[in-house]
Amino acid sequence: KAGVTQTPRYLIKTRGQQVTLSCSPISGHRSVSWYQQTPGQGLQFLFEYFSETQRNKGNFPGRFSGRQFSNSRSEMNVSTLELGDSALYLCASSLGQGVDKNIQYFGAGTRLSVL
Amino acid sequence: GIQVEQSPPDLILQEGANSTLRCNFSDSVNNLQWFHQNPWGQLINLFYIPSGTKQNGRLSATTVATERYSLLYISSSQTTDSGVYFCAVENNYGQNFVFGPGTRLSVLP
């Protein structure tokens, strides 16, 4: 079974631009969560989607948004990029319901650099 | 929200040594996972262990839910064990997964 796939792996943008990151979950998983990792703040939860609905949200500004499609693939978007948005963005998938519903499996991440 | 602490923050070992990493959390949890982050940034699942004890090769983990801590044991460490180990928890209210600050392990040849 294929793991969680994130694209692209690396991205360089300039301040003020916007960016879209993609995550394909493990087959059969209906929940996708996004995390931001920075040296100063560690790993922080952004949001979780389940069956195309945002089920949980962290403390990030509205510039950070996401969505989930009917095939459970998810995208996150960051608008009006700031230097502080430079980070490793990690996506995790889980079943989202039933036994072991909360066990999270992570992708390799997208490393975003904002210049 | 739930707080997660990990200790020690840094650990340096000689190859072959054993180690114990600790995770303390401030509330009841229904999910606790240990991860190893490799040098390329990927988080590798080690254990899903909201309670009890599990073993996988040279690694084992114990969670004492009533006392709100979990331990990760690494025996006969190898240089490939180097990296950052994270504990992450989800509380009983289904709130978001919270990560600890991590323990950076360096295993020297």
The radius of gyration computed from the alpha-carbon positions of chain A, rounded to a whole number of angstroms, is: 13 Å
The number of helical segments of chain A is 0
Arithmetic mean of pLDDT of chain A: 94
Q: Any low-confidence stretches of chain A, pLDDT <50, length ≥5?
A: none
The share of residues in extended strands of chain B comes to over 45%
Largest sheet of chain A: 7 strands, mixed
What helical percentage do the residues of chain B reach? under 10%
Structural class by helix and strand composition of chain A: mainly beta
Estimated helix fraction of chain A: under 10%
**What gross morphology of chain A would you assign?**
globular
The rounded distance between the terminal residues' Cα atoms of chain A is 37 Å
Shape, principal axes of CA atoms of chain B: globular
- Give the SSE string of chain A: EEEEEEEEEEE
The assigned structural class of chain B equals: mainly beta
Number of strands of chain B: 11
Q: Supply Rg of chain B.
A: 13 Å
Give the end-to-end Cα distance of chain B, rounded to a whole number of Å: 41 Å
Q: Strand share of the residues of chain A?
A: over 45%
Name the chain pair with the biggest interface and residue counts per chain: A-B, 24 and 22 residues
Description:
The complex is a heterodimer of chains A (115) and B (109). Chain A is mainly beta. Chain A is built from no helices and eleven strands. In chain A, strands 2, 4, 5, 6, 9, 10 and 11 form a seven-stranded mixed β-sheet that branches. A four-stranded antiparallel β-sheet of chain A has the order 1-3-8-7, with no helix packed on it. In chain A, a hairpin with a 5-residue loop joins strand 7 (64-68) and strand 8 (74-78). The radius of gyration of chain A is 13 Å and the shape is globular. Chain A starts with a strand and ends with a strand. Chain B has 109 residues and is an all-beta fold. Chain B contains no helices and eleven strands. Chain B has strands spanning 4-7, 10-14, 19-25, 29-37, 43-48, 52-56, 59-64, 69-74, 83-91, 98-99, 103-108. In chain B, strands 2, 4, 5, 9, 10 and 11 form a six-stranded mixed β-sheet that branches. The A-B interface holds A 33, 35, 37, 42-45, 48, 56-58, 88, 90, 92, 100, 102-109, 111 and B 30-31, 33, 35, 40-45, 48, 86, 88, 90, 94-99, 101-102.
